[in-house]
User: Which sequence fits this backbone?
């Protein structure tokens, strides 16, 4: 049932001109506000300067209203005179103001007439403001074009407009809710309407709204609307899905991936096997642990896996476990609610896990994570839910974990620095990126790529590389791995001319070579020398896991693996998978 707000407008107008303002407040005449059907709506008590509604008025005192002819402006009865003037809106009487006197009082008649005129003028003004601010066709066109929900209410909390996207978010239609109280439509979310009480705008507050057959987690912002007389006439509510805000916030804080497998430069068999295994693992939902020395490109591989996976359109959120201050770890990972602690941001904050919903969490340097947080991380992985700091609501999350470390986690477990149960949770698919000194055959190719990139960045011609300089680069141990190599190459490009000579290289690289500390040739070490069947073993495990996940449906499994059904059957036969 739609709400008739005329009574509320009348009450507000009478209160403003008789009680709050100075206009007419010194008159001692009681005024009766009556509907055209003769029903009493309000009584203005001049002595008390208060407004009473019908239920609070002594009915016996008002029996004379039953014999009153509202169409007559002045009527004489047996023992009193009555004066009745209509309050008009669009030429129609909304109400009548009635006053009575024991004698014919022309001054009272003029007073009632002027009061009715004043209230009629206020009604027209209020309704015009509503049309201008809340029902403008220009506003409607703009609001239908935006991607989020847009709702307006009048000063009494009655919905006056809802755009198409807002109706979709609330699983309703504009026709079903316009004209109804907002707190009825949104199931008692009274906090939303505080903007009408305080006149204070607020932004990005999260609410769980019951909608037909479901619940919607929405983020609302509220803006009060004022007229030219500084009177509050309504409010605008802008809202959207929490997931939409999460994605927007994740994009703003730089949580995205740019690297793909094509951006990984290599020529060695060792890296070829790593990339093949990474691509196979990417097509699954399994947790991946990447181990490797600092500078080997663990995050690059993690981004490539994400972009190759079924979650590529979701966010890629990086959590550097070594860089978050210990006292902020929990709030950074799980977020917090409004007022959770001193200094907490107004309205609360999303945590990293929420921002990663639908995408991938990259836990960089997971070996540095404090033990107490390891326990909470394990709980998140198992339950797929989180609770914000200071809040009690359980929030479901959906993300895939890729972890990386330059430590040996097995040793960390033995030393009591890493939880065994968490270790087994993340040690499902294991990638080890070989250091640069283990794959020196990649160095010439990498150097060529880095020279081209540095020359383009510094707007110079790409220099040639002397054989002696290349031999030095190949035989250096590269403790900083690819990161160190790229920085060294960029330095030489800036300092050299047409050819990079030995003298252009950093001293730390040249000195061991010049003193004979390096051999003229190098020996390639097989990456999987300890287990030559390691790749095949891992691939077999991946295939079995995907087949299990899809109920051994061969077509679905082949699709997830990115191979044909015939190829899948060949691999099943090869690995003896029944």
Assistant:
């Amino acid at each position: 049932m739609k709400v008739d707000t005329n009574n509320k407008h009348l009450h507000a107008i009478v209160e403003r001109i008789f009680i709050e303002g100075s206009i007419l407040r010194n008159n001692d005449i009681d005024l009766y506000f009556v509907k055209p059907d003769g029903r009493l709506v309000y009584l203005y008590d001049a002595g008390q300067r208060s407004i009473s509604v019908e239920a609070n008025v002594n009915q016996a005192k008002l029996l004379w209203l039953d014999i009153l002819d509202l169409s007559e402006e002045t009527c004489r009865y047996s023992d009193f005179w009555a004066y009745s003037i209509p309050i008009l809106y669009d030429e129609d009487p909304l109400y009548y103001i009635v006053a009575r006197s024991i004698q014919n009082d022309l001054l009272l008649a003029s007073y009632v007439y002027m009061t009715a005129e004043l209230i009629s003028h206020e009604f027209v003004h209020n309704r015009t403001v509503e049309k201008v601010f809340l029902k403008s066709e220009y506003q409607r066109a703009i609001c239908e074009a935006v991607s989020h929900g847009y709702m307006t209410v009048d000063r009494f909390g009655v919905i006056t407009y809802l755009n198409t996207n807002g109706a979709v978010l609330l699983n309703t239609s504009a026709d079903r809710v316009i004209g109804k109280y907002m707190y009825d439509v949104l199931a008692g979310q009274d906090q939303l309407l505080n903007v009408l009480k305080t006149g204070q705008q607020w932004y990005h507050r999260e609410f769980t709204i019951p909608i037909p057959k479901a619940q919607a987690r929405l983020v609302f912002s509220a803006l009060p609307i004022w007229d030219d007389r500084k009177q509050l006439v309504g409010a605008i509510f802008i809202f959207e899905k929490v997931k939409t805000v999460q994605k927007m916030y994740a994009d703003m804080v730089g949580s995205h991936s740019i690297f793909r497998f094509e951006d990984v430069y290599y020529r060695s068999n060792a890296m070829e096997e790593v990339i093949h295994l990474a691509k196979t693992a990417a097509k699954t939902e399994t947790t991946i642990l990447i181990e490797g020395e600092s500078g080997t490109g663990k995050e690059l591989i993690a981004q490539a896996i994400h972009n190759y996976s079924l979650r590529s359109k979701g966010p890629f959120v990086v959590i550097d476990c070594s860089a978050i201050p210990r006292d902020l770890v929990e709030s950074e990972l799980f977020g917090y609610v409004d007022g959770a602690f001193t200094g907490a941001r107004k309205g609360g904050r999303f945590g990293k896990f929420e921002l990663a919903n639908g995408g991938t969490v990259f836990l960089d340097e997971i070996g540095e994570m404090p033990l107490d947080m390891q326990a909470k991380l394990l709980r998140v992985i198992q339950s797929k839910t989180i609770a914000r700091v200071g809040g009690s609501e359980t929030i479901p999350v959906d993300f895939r974990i890729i972890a990386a470390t330059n430590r040996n986690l097995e040793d960390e477990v033995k030393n009591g620095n890493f939880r065994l149960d968490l270790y087994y949770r993340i040690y499902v698919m294991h990638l080890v990126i070989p250091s640069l000194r283990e794959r020196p055959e990649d160095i010439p190719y990498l150097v060529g790529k880095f020279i081209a990139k540095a020359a383009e960045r510094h707007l110079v011609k790409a220099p040639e590389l002397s054989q002696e300089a290349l031999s030095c680069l190949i035989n250096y141990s590269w403790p900083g791995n690819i990161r160190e190599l790229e920085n060294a190459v960029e330095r030489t490009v800036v300092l050299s001319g047409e050819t990079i000579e030995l003298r252009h290289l950093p001293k730390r690289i040249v000195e061991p070579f010049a003193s004979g500390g390096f051999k003229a040739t190098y020996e390639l070490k097989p990456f999987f020398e300890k287990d030559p069947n390691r790749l095949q073993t891992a691939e077999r495990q991946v295939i079995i896991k995907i087949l299990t996940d899809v109920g051994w449906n061969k077509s679905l499994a082949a699709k997830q693996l990115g191979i044909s059904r015939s190829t899948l059957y060949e691999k099943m036969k090869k690995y003896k998978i029944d």
